[in-house]
Specification:
heterodimer, A: alpha/beta, five-stranded parallel β-sheet, 18 helices, globular, B: five-stranded mixed β-sheet, elongated
């Protein structure tokens, strides 16, 4: 089966691969596009931009989202910015540098050709977004402004205050609305995909539940695009929105799509620390804050104690008694090291007893020096809304005392395996944005998620999907009365019936929290063999508890949020186990994946290129059966593979 | 902390709604309002699953449905009418960013959905705001095709203009302005989009068409008219100013007279 992993990377020089591939792709004429139907699931940056662009091309698009409006997708919450190799700052940036930073940031576990293409189209994304009327930050002369993000030494990040994701999504959503108005796209809000329908080995449609009526509905198409984001909520507490889930990806996995690098999850260093047991959601403070904020803990344990008792304020600790540990350990990048490095460094200090709040799980992010250097107004312009948000949540004023932050699960680099055309191992099934695995390797750089979502949706998928569809226009419309649709719907119905039949006592969220605890403990920031094995056992035991004792109140019909959550939790169990399997297999440390057994004397992550320079693609083998691992070797032809160094 | 919660329960769009009162205790003052509702729901689910509690005459309406998603004040999904105010007693926040420390211990809190003829109730506290999508579909966009754009720096936008456009573009589409307006007017919502685009050079070619189509759609969907009470501005979680309604009116009149 390993022959399914054909990456389809074009031959030739790196900079010419995408041009070459585009020239090979078959076209579909306008009159034939009208005959073709495409389903897009998800309306974040990837899904909305893809659906809008496919609609503009003349395809018949059906777009689905679980929220009441496409605009609510979690891309909306991205704060800091979007990268592009424009070199508007004259700081010697280039497509090559963006490509290089991304490969290096990903710790050499992503494909050269994909990442180069991403860097290549980045510039056109900014052009597109400006044309849509997105109010990016501007200089006084009217030109676009930039800022820096972690893991790079240039300023290539475009932003709209701390609401860049919101503005980009509203731009894509506006384009989607334009196509909905013109009739090329039909929108199905409050619909949740519950299964993929495969006919003769090809993706032909979905089964979705209408979340208002509760009815199961069948939708057919010539191709299906999954743009449903990542699976960070496996951990229960994460920066993801409450309804973000990995279920669509799991449905595709169970129908035969390989799932790649599931253990690569990003832990973001700058989140507001956990406040108590009643919490259900963690809030991210944008990485852009690390442009001007300095991260520190006290040098002396007695100061830590006083802080915890509340007998001194952080601002009272003199400069010489502060340990700016990122600046100390990584002088070349300082506070702007990549996320995985910054997160681990925070954990190291807190594990050593220097955590600055009562739980011992927090470090300071301090703006006092920036406020002195830039003045109140400039700092307010750059970060005002973030300061406000912090104050609202924590009731503490970051203008007076430093913020407290701690790492939290934020993004998943792993996802559905796709080839260079973004097609999965199931023909006709595509995956874009965070839902696929393709571009970020073991660690994603800040401001690159927005870039990838929009690159896939605006510029890559609308081209590559044509190659598949060019062979399909003579096929009739997919018949939703086909036996495969009936069988898929029946299976979904059986799954729902089984959940109601349990009639247990424990609410879904209680069990989800337990899963989150297992994941954070054993598949979190530091992973080791014994812990990972334990995680697999504990997830199995928890699953058993779920099927014995979960309580799903109400009925299938009508609006039922508990049913939605129960269905998603079933899939989170599966993802959690898959993550643990993958983490167990990958006994190297790499990017966000840190295996305790594989570190240098200084405690830095130690890669094992000889044994693990591959994409781990997992194949579903049936319920309860260990999934099968397939390896796609990664070849680096154009750059030299090095140990990541942010020190000098 | 402990509270008495008087919550609007309604089985579906057609059913008649009513208030039910619940008691909840052991709430941390740092918990958010929605986290408090999560805890209430956990309690209601456990009671509903417990035959003894049901026999004792325990409420059996099940957990309370409410829309929510990002829980960081940006997606616009959540929106509750709390003690007579859209998004509750704190200023310029969404419901998810409202914390229990803003309430008195032991208080009775009334929780209702956003009420407006433009937002029919789906269940309990969940309303249908698809009218907002329809208004934006009528013209809330710039008609640019993917790939057609020129280099971004060829369109110059003065710093202050971009900032002002951003002030309006910050709208999260939550519906608080409609819910709080005595006329159920959607003017602030429509103005935010119209004004944000009207300020920018990219938005000018279609400005006239846009404002006319969006206003016509808003009227068609049954939203009321604006009588300048400015209640919307006070309750808007993003603090969007009624100055944008003034710009909307100028755009609309300008479009009318140039016909």
């Amino acid at each position: 089966m390993a022959d399914k992993l054909v990456s389809k990377i074009p031959d030739g020089p790196l900079a010419e691969k995408w041009t070459k591939r585009k020239s090979e792709i078959h076209l579909v004429s306008p009159n034939n596009k009208r005959k073709l139907e495409i389903i897009v699931v998800g309306t974040g940056l990837g899904g909305a931009s893809a659906a809008a662009s496919l609609g503009e091309l003349g395809y018949n698009v059906k777009v689905f989202c679980i929220s009441d409006s496409p605009r609510r997708a979690h891309s909306i919450a991205a704060q800091g910015g979007i990268n592009a190799a424009k070199n508007y700052q004259n700081d010697n940036d280039s497509v090559y540098r963006l490509f290089y930073d991304t490969i290096k940031g990903g710790d050499y576990r992503s494909r050269e050709a994909n990442v180069y293409r991403l860097a290549e189209v980045s510039s056109a994304i900014i052009d597109q977004c400006v044309a849509q009327g997105i109010p990016f930050a501007r200089e006084y002369g009217g030109y676009l402004a930039n800022r820096s993000f972690g893991g790079v030494q240039v300023s290539r990040t475009f932003y709209a205050r701390g609401q860049t994701g919101q503005q980009l999504l509203l731009g894509a959503y506006a384009s989607l609305n334009k196509e909905i108005a013109s009739g090329t796209v039909k929108s199905y809000p409050r619909h949740e995909m519950l299964d993929l329908v495969v006919i003769n080995g090809e993706a032909k449609g979905i089964i979705a539940r209408n979340l208002v009526t509760g009815e199961l509905e069948r939708f057919g198409a010539h191709a299906v695009v999954i743009a449903t984001g990542g699976y960070g909520n496996t951990y229960f507490l994460s920066t993801n929105a409450m309804n973000s889930n990995g279920s669509a990806a799991m449905q595709c996995w169970r129908k035969g799509a390989y799932f790649a690098n599931p253990c690569f999850a990003q832990i973001h260093p700058t989140c507001i620390p956990v406040h108590g047991d009643q919490q259900c959601k963690l809030t991210l403070m944008s990485e852009s804050l690390r442009n001007d904020g300095r991260i520190w803990v006290p040098k002396k344990l007695e100061d830590v104690e006083k802080l915890r008792k509340g007998t001194i304020k952080p601002s009272q600790i003199p400069e010489e008694d502060r340990d700016y540990y990122l600046e100390r350990r990584y002088p070349a990048f300082g506070n702007l090291v990549p996320r995985d490095v910054a997160s681990r460094a925070a954990k190291e200090r807190c594990d050593a007893g220097y955590g600055v709040n009562e739980t011992g799980k927090a470090v300071f992010l301090d703006f006092s020096e920036a406020i002195e250097r830039l003045g109140h107004q400039k700092v307010a312009e750059r970060y005002g809304n973030l300061f406000e948000m912090y104050q609202k949540i924590t009731d503490s004023d970051p203008w007076k005392e430093p913020m407290m932050i701690y790492p939290a699960i934020h993004y998943t680099m792993g996802g559905i395996w796709v080839d260079y055309d973004l097609q999965t191992t199931i023909p006709g099934l595509y995956a874009i944005g965070e839902a696929n695995f393709s571009d970020h390797g073991g660690n994603r750089l800040g401001a690159s998620a927005l870039m990838q979502g929009l690159a896939d949706g605006y510029f890559i998928l609308p081209v590559t999907i044509g190659d598949y569809l060019s062979h399909k226009f003579s096929e009739p419309k997919t018949d939703i009365n086909a036996p495969e649709f009936a069988a898929a719907e029946k299976a979904v119905q059986a799954r729902i019936d089984a959940l109601f039949a349990i009639k247990g006592k424990t609410p879904v969220d209680v069990l989800h929290k337990k899963l989150g605890n297992i994941m954070w403990e054993y598949v979190g920031m530091a992973r080791e063999e014994a812990g990972l094995k334990k995680a697999i056992q504990e997830i199995d035991a928890l699953k058993e508890e779920f099927y014995k004792d979960v309580c799903v109140p109400g009925t299938q019909y009508g609006f039922n949020q508990e049913l939605e959550k129960a269905l998603r939790l079933e899939d989170f169990f599966e993802i959690g186990k898959l993550m643990a399997f993958d983490a167990l297999n990958r006994s190297e440390s790499c990017g966000g994946h840190f295996r305790v057994e594989s570190q240098t004397e200084e405690g830095e992550a130690k890669r094992d290129d000889a044994n693990f320079m591959y994409v781990a693609a997992w194949e579903y083998k049936g319920p309860g059966v260990t999934p099968e691992l397939h390896k796609e070797p990664l070849k680096y032809e154009f750059i030299e593979v090095k140990t990541r160094n942010y020190k000098d | 902390m402990e509270f008495n919660l008087k919550i609007w329960r309604q089985k579906n769009a057609k059913a008649k709604g009513h208030f039910e009162t619940y008691h909840i205790s052991g709430i941390e003052s740092d918990a958010s309002f929605l986290e408090m509702l999560d805890i209430l729901n956990e309690q209601l689910i456990r009671e509903g699953a417990d035959p003894v509690a049901v026999e004792r005459g325990c409420q059996s309406s099940g957990p309370v449905s409410f829309d929510h998603d990002c829980r960081e004040g940006i997606c616009g999904a959540c929106g509750l009418y709390i003690d007579g105010r859209a998004h509750g007693p704190d200023d310029h926040v969404t419901t998810c960013q409202l914390f229990m420390r803003h309430f008195k211990d032991g208080a009775t809190i009334t929780v209702e959905p956003f009420r407006s003829s433009g937002f029919p109730i789906i269940k309990d506290l969940v309303v249908d705001r698809s009218a907002y999508d329809k208004i934006l579909q009528a013209g809330g966009f710039v008609s640019v095709r993917t790939g057609a754009a020129q280099d971004a720096n060829n369109i110059l936008v003065p710093h202050d203009v971009a900032e002002k456009s951003m002030d309006a573009a910050a709208c999260i589409g939550c519906g608080a302005c409609v819910a709080t307006c005595k006329n159920g007017s959607a003017m602030l919502f429509v103005a935010a989009r119209v004004s944000s685009l009207a300020l920018l050079p990219q938005g000018r070619p279609e400005a006239k068409r846009r404002v006319q189509k969006m206003i016509a759609k808003m009227d068609e969907l049954g939203f009321g008219s604006c009588t300048n009470t400015r209640a919307c501005e006070l309750e808007c979680p993003k603090g969007i100013s009624v100055e944008h309604i003034a710009r909307l009116n100028r755009e609309f009149l300008g479009a009318h007279f140039s016909d």
